[in-house]
Amino acid sequence: MSVQDGNTTQTQDEGTGPRYARIQKILESRLRDGTYPVGSLMPTEIELAGEFDTSRFTVREALRHLTETGFVERRQGLGTRVISTEPQMRYSQTFDSLQELFQVAVETYYVVMHTEEVVLDKSLAEVVGGKAGETWTRVEGVRWTEPGGRPLAFIESYVPARFAKYVPEFQGHQGAFFSLLESHSAVPIDECEQEISAAPMPEKAQRYLGLAPGAIALQLLRRYHSSEGVVITSCNWHPAEQLSYKMHIKRNRGQA
Amino acid sequence: MSVQDGNTTQTQDEGTGPRYARIQKILESRLRDGTYPVGSLMPTEIELAGEFDTSRFTVREALRHLTETGFVERRQGLGTRVISTEPQMRYSQTFDSLQELFQVAVETYYVVMHTEEVVLDKSLAEVVGGKAGETWTRVEGVRWTEPGGRPLAFIESYVPARFAKYVPEFQGHQGAFFSLLESHSAVPIDECEQEISAAPMPEKAQRYLGLAPGAIALQLLRRYHSSEGVVITSCNWHPAEQLSYKMHIKRNRGQA
DNA sequence: CCAAGCCATATGTATGGACATACTCATCCA
DNA sequence: TGGATGAGTATGTCCATACATATGGCTTGG
User: Fold this and answer.
1) Band of residue B57 on the pLDDT scale cut at 50, 70, 90
2) E strands along chain B, which residues?
3) Residue of A nearest to B57 (CA)
4) Is residue A88 assigned to a domain?
5) What mean pLDDT is reported for chain B?
6) Residues A53 and A106 in one domain
7) Do A221 and A121 share a structural domain?
């Protein structure tokens, strides 16, 4: 592929496409085969420009692409450090909002059935993302298509003490609670975990949703995090025949 | 924010950070408020360089970021066309492989219990991603932790005719079928749909997995696509108490 | 021995310039 | 009237240069 002549690697007369792309490919091969080991510093921009007999601009273009694909990180004053022998992003699923991600219909209506304070034991702390001994507010209720419409789900929400004062706003709220609480918070929700499982529908939920005994639920447990900790954890119980969770994943371009 | 003086917008003495970032923010505001309507061409690089009294390089850096965030697309000879008033990527979940996405343990063992050809009716065609009247191969079996270990799931796979000849390789296969079929295909799997739901475990599956009557399943229906169409569709029935599906989503940087 | 300051180094930002390539539109010819 | 060609335009590639800023290591002083 590349012709090593002394310390100069020729790229001008080989292959097609822009020169920076050709240099990028050569460097990527070296990263993959361990010539530049993970954790080490690559040759400097100036050194590479000398090796490839090209301008620093061209080398920087090649390195920028390697940075974007996750092979290296670059620090002013330090150099270009290898962080992986493989590109970091292969498949992705992207969303404009968490509402879209969670396939939440925004025009719904929430009825609070019961509110209480709970002291977390070890196992509940693990579920909600708090610490044992902490006091959280537990809110249970039913989300409806609209006032007087059909019940959609039985929901148990767990709210940490710092947001407890906003719980009265849940009643009648249209849309997702996490965005309600986010609007009261100085920092945005920047991370979320969801866990999907199948389970028998709890008896209380069967009664609230008007289901026959033995009903099955698709359970969606979600923890919403900001940099200040968990904002809210909610456990949604959906009747099995009324909800399925759909995902559509694409492979990234540029990894052909 | 910006001071319009004739046709020159000053950025040198305002705010902090690199100049290209400041220009990017100004341009982003204009995109969001419709100054540059979707579908239209923005001012040229040279025009913007004139307006901001800066070099073409600096303008290009600002435009590159706008391109990466999805506001515009740039074509040589044509210009910079507005494609959205909003950034295109807000939340994402990324994976290095589909195996990671689907939380598939690779050291599992598949036993084929039954294979048959089926002619798709309308409703089955919709499920598997084929066309009514087409003949597909249906393979049912059980995936085990290891030979002689525990059963993990009952799996129904539907394979289009062009891959039917590879079905005999399913028996005893460790790992995912889609990667087996991908290795026989000229083009990669580049897209996948998954649908998660809760349902009663089918009777045959209950028997294969040694479950008591009335068992509940988490059902995972997956369609794998390449540019040449569906590669395989598989329907996995997991005992509810043995599997939950976990997701971890982060908000993109740069959209603070 | 530890902390602070200085210096060398490497990437980040930015300018000005030149040429290549892709794209569209207008004009001309069959 | 339709197709082909050429000219004008705008982004893509690449160069040389200069200065700014971040980083780490070494030296000096307390």
Assistant:
1) very high
2) 3-5, 8-10, 72-75, 79-82, 91-95, 109-119, 135-144, 151-160, 189-200, 216-226, 229-239, 244-251
3) A57
4) no
5) 82
6) no
7) yes
Nearest to A240 among B86, B198, B246 (CB): B198
Name chain B contacts of A246, Cβ cutoff 8 Å. 193-196
CATH of the domain at A25: 1.10.10.10
Residues of B in contact with A91 (CB under 8 A): 94-98, 101, 192
The domain containing residue B26 runs over which residues? 3-82
Distance (Å, whole) CA B221 – CA B199: 12
Write the ipTM. 0.58
Report the percent of chain A where pLDDT is more than 90: 33
- Please write the tens of the pLDDT for every residue from B28-56: 999 988 899 988 999 999 999 999 999 99
Percentage with pLDDT > 70 across chain B: 83
Beta strands in chain A (DSSP E): 3-5, 8-10, 72-75, 79-82, 91-95, 109-119, 135-144, 151-160, 189-200, 216-226, 229-239, 244-251
SS3 B250: strand
CA B12 to CA A60: how far, in whole Å? 25
Rounded Cα–Cα distance for residues B122 and B118 (Å): 12
Same domain, B105 and B201: yes
Report the amino acid identity of residue B146: E
Chain A positions in Cβ-Cβ contact with residue B249 (cut-off 8 Å): 95, 98, 101, 191-194
Instruction: Give contacts of B 90-149 with A, CB under 8 A.
Output: 90-98, 101
| Contact call for residues A153 and A173 (beta carbons, < 8 A) | no
Burial class (CB in 10 A: 0-12, 13-18, 19+), A192: buried
pLDDT at residue A122, rounded to an integer: 84
- pLDDT single digits (tens) B70-120: 889 898 888 999 988 877 655 666 665 666 666 666 567 888 999 999 998
Residue bearing tokens 């694909």: A69
In a domain, B252, yes or no: no
Nearest to A90 among B95, B193, B241 (CB): B95
